[in-house]
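Severity: low
Component: inverse-folding endpoint
Summary: output formatting inconsistent between runs
Steps to reproduce: submit the following structure tokens with default settings.
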């Protein structure tokens, strides 16, 4: 007997196993069924993770499913046995099905409760985080194809209360879960509204409305975008000439400085697709305000056990750096690949799969993220002016840029954007003073929104913890009071065993 419920149970309960109170993966006499019979069909995708929701609306002919699928009927409990579906809680009580019969994925176990055992009680126990955690530790098979076996599930301990108490427990769980669901629904709605607010704020920022009052109050600080761009171009040309002179003076040691690349101005057709901007602002190309450096494809043979972290595409999250996956290069690479060094406040963007939904994989490095070296498929922006870091970081997360990017991503299996095309995208430019004020406002407001989002996330975790606490109380006999007038579980279990024995004897006589 596999120990799952280690709690001391009330006197009128008893510990048993799934195989004693349920038929585990019961068989079906298919010979008596007509091939043209319509039956319900439930693929794994039709069972929602963690909620018990199941869609049985799809139907197929019996002839199409009688081989290679798992049969079940109403009031059975479906239990996903394969990873990660089991860990995610893809389990459900089967509702009424077409012609009383359903078929589904072979990755389902079926638990058919005996008389006196309530299906919902079985479902809540099998779907609890405590049970799933224990089942995960006892899975068999290769990585990626691990499963809960039939013998393991059959022999798992099951806390059996009297039938009437099972009903009271299920009713109480559903009452408490209903209240929890209302609260979590409100939290998720607030979370979704917060995301909409952030996107609306970015749109508001880059059509000039967020800083409209600032412009009215500071007319003397409004250098036009055209004048700013011209000044930057002159400064880049002067800097290039100085680098060229220094290179010549050093007997041409090292690589020759690269000539600044001039991009063609946006066409009237390009501008016609973009929103109007305030007076003094201009649409320019991203390459007018920054260049981009893509990482290098280091070989696995170059990796080290420690040293300088390699900044890979897996480390780029949404507005944050994630070091869940760490790879190292030898320390000497820090000197060998100076162009690929990453420092605090650098902005990096995923060039492969840059979008997940409407979110861009872009982040700003913190002090703790350096030193690190850039890997392939990740680009680092090198702004021509320090203030342009804020412009790039915030604008590239705006719905204006993301809408343009979604329309042009190449690749079917792995959508990507190449460096040269990225530099051609439009970006709104304003005076450096206004840009500084705009960045400070966005930083302030987004910081407040992030704090609120963290509160919501914490509350959702607490709700899930409370949900599991309710289940723990339920299966230890502490959620509802015991009634001394209830038939004890031992009598129920004896009746179930007697019924199974009689059924087994009947089978032998018929044979």
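Observed output (run 2 of 3):
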């Amino acid at each position: 007997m596999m120990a799952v419920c280690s709690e001391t149970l009330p006197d009128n309960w008893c510990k048993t196993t799934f195989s004693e109170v349920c038929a585990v993966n019961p068989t079906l006499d298919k010979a008596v069924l007509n091939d043209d019979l319509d039956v319900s069909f439930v693929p794994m995708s039709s069972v929602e993770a963690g909620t018990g929701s199941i869609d049985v609306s799809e139907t197929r002919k019996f002839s199409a499913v009688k081989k290679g699928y798992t049969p079940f009927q109403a009031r059975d409990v479906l239990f996903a046995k394969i990873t990660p579906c089991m860990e995610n809680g893809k389990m459900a009580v089967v509702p009424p099905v077409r012609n009383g019969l359903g078929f589904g994925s072979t990755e389902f176990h079926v638990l058919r409760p005996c008389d006196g055992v309530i299906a919902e009680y079985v479902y809540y126990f099998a779907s609890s985080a405590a049970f799933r955690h224990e089942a995960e530790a006892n899975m068999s098979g290769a990585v990626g194809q691990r499963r809960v076996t039939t013998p393991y599930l059959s022999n798992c301990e099951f806390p059996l209360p009297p039938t009437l108490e099972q009903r009271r427990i299920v009713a109480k769980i559903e009452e408490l879960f209903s209240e929890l669901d209302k609260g979590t629904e409100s939290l998720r709605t607030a979370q979704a509204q917060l995301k909409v607010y952030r996107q609306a704020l970015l749109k508001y920022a880059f059509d000039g409305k967020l800083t409209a009052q600032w412009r009215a109050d500071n007319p003397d600080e409004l250098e036009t975008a055209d004048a700013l761009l011209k000044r930057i171009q002159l400064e880049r040309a002067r800097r290039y000439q100085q680098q060229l002179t220094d290179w010549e003076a050093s007997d041409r040691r090292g690589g020759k400085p690269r000539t600044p690349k001039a991009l063609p101005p946006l066409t009237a057709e390009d501008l016609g697709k973009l929103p109007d901007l305030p007076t003094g602002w201009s649409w320019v190309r991203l390459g007018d305000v920054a260049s981009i450096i893509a990482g290098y494809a280091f070989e696995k043979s170059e990796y080290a056990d420690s040293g300088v972290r390699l900044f890979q595409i897996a480390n780029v999250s949404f507005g944050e750096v994630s070091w869940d996956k760490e790879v190292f290069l030898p320390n000497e690479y820090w000197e060998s690949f100076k162009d690929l060094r990453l420092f605090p406040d650098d902005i990096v963007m995923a060039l492969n799969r840059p979008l997940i939904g409407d979110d861009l994989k872009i982040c700003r490095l913190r002090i703790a993220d350096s030193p690190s070296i850039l890997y392939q498929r990740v680009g680092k922006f090198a702004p021509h002016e320090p203030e342009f870091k804020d412009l790039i970081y915030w604008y590239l997360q705006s719905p204006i840029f993301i809408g343009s990017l979604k329309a042009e991503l190449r690749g079917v299996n792995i959508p990507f954007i190449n460096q040269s095309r990225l530099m051609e995208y439009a970006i709104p430019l304003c005076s450096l003073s206004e840009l500084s004020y705009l960045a400070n406002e966005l930083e302030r407001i987004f910081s407040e929104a992030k704090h609120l989002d963290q509160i919501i996330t914490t509350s959702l975790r607490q709700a899930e913890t409370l949900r599991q606490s309710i289940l723990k109380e339920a299966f230890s006999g502490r959620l509802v009071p015991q009634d001394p007038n209830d038939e004890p579980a031992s009598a129920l279990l004896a009746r179930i065993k007697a019924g199974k024995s009689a059924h087994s004897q009947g089978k032998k006589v018929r044979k």
